[in-house]
TrEMBL record:
Residues the record lists as binding ATP: 13, 59-61, 108-109, 126
Lineage per the UniProt record: Eukaryota, Viridiplantae, Chlorophyta, core chlorophytes, Trebouxiophyceae
GO molecular function, one term: protein serine/threonine kinase activity
SUPFAM superfamilies: Protein kinase-like (PK-like) (SSF56112)
Organism: Chlorella sorokiniana
Name of the protein: Serine threonine-kinase
Length: 382
């Protein structure tokens, strides 16, 4: 789809009108609007209606997601992984400074600005699980992708969303440099109960055959700590020696003056559509498909333009939150690459599997810790 005024290509997420337009969709759009304009966050452009769907127009990233890049590469060189991680932390720091917690940080939600290369810019996307720290109550329910979810979230306890986001960043960094998830059991990597058990234990290790600097290992070990009081914070990550190496200027921690300058620049990037406009649009979108105005508040994108994108001239299928579950491993890869991709695919667990695995694994962990009189404590390398 192209923007009418500039001719630039944009990405569009479609959600079917009616009952699908719930509070989560509203929160996703409003939170995304607040964060747009940062160089490492996918830019929100506009929400609009078709006769059957709500459309969310946003910046297009032509390099695909970081998961695919890591899978194709088997793993990233440490220097390249650091650059990706620095950009992720910069994006997440901006989210947190604006009172927004992402709650679904994972390689699939990290997009590359252009086809994979070390010059690609990383962009954080998908705010479907995001939470406003001020407007919404303290969470105590499990959301996100289980392989990345912090142990306190899996335990369905009240938790600090900022520290849960930090945990997910640690999983992402480990996966980039190792080519596998930290909590997969090598005996059975596709067993969700074993993955959940290792997360609840905080138990992981570094494969001895993969070279990794002591500084990088130290940072990962300080992030993947089960005890939240001992887990490193986002601000402490930004001061870690490994993180500070070759740090790009747009990834540096901001002082109050720089923060105000960035906020002003972000504000200047935003479109004229206001939160009130979006809320009014969503009220219409909640009506059954086929009612209301198809072009309401969609002035930047004509109906002809987005209808040209529909397969066979029909309505688009809604883009689901867990669409990555349908991805397949490509044929023709080398043995090592295919094995790495298969291992990463095996680590993906859907929400239903996750809940069942948590219940079983939590009982096992509780029994083991009871025998050990509460031993366990923090995470780190075994």
């Amino acid at each position: 789809m192209r923007e009418r005024a500039s001719g630039r290509l944009v990405a569009v997420k479609y959600v079917r009108r009616g009952a699908s337009i719930d509070e989560d969709v509203e929160s996703e759009i409003l939170n995304h609007m607040r964060l747009s304009g940062h160089p490492h966050i996918i830019q929100f452009y506009e929400a609009f209606l078709t006769p059957t769907h709500l459309g969310i127009a946003m910046e297009a990233a032509f390099g695909g997601c970081l998961f695919d890049f890591v899978s194709d590469s088997i793993r990233l060189r440490e220097r390249h992984a650091r650059l990706m991680f620095q950009q992720l932390i910069a994006a997440l720091a901006w989210c947190h400074s604006q009172g927004i917690h992402h709650r679904d940080v994972k390689l699939e939600n990290l997009l590359l600005s252009r086809p994979a290369s070390e010059g690609s810019v990383l962009k954080l996307c998908d705010f479907g699980f995001s939470r406003d720290a001020v407007a919404q109550a303290q969470p105590h329910t499990m959301v996100g992708t289980p392989a990345y979810v912090a142990p306190e979230v899996l335990a369905c306890q009240q938790f600090d969303c900022a520290l849960a986001d930090v945990w997910a960043c640690g999983v992402a960094l480990y996966t980039m440099v190792q080519g596998c998830y930290p909590f997969q059991d090598p005996r059975d990597p596709d067993d969700p109960q074993l993955i959940i058990k290792h997360i609840l234990h905080g138990s992981f290790d570094f494969p001895p055959d993969v070279p990794l600097s002591p500084e990088c290992k130290d940072l990962i070990q300080r992030i993947l700590v089960r005890d939240v009081t001992q887990r490193i914070t986002l601000q402490q990550i930004q001061q870690h020696p490994w993180f500070l190496q070759d740090l790009p200027s747009d990834c540096q921690a901001c002082d109050p003056t720089q923060q105000a300058t960035l906020a002003a620049a972000v504000q200047a990037c935003r479109l004229s559509q206001t939160p009130a406009d979006v809320k009014a649009l969503l009220e219409v979108a909640r009506q059954r498909p086929g009612t209301g105005s198809s072009g309401m508040l969609g002035s930047e994108f004509s109906s002809d333009e987005h209808l040209l994108q529909l397969p066979g001239g029909g309505s688009p299928d809604p883009i689901r939150e867990e669409s990555e579950e349908s991805e397949q491993i490509e044929d023709g890869r080398g043995d090592g690459e295919a094995a790495m991709a298969a291992a990463m695919e095996a680590g993906r667990i859907d929400a239903e599997q996750g809940r069942a695995a948590v219940a079983a694994a939590a009982m096992e962990v509780a029994a083991m810790e009871g025998v050990a009189h509460g031993g366990g404590g923090g995470g780190g390398s075994l």
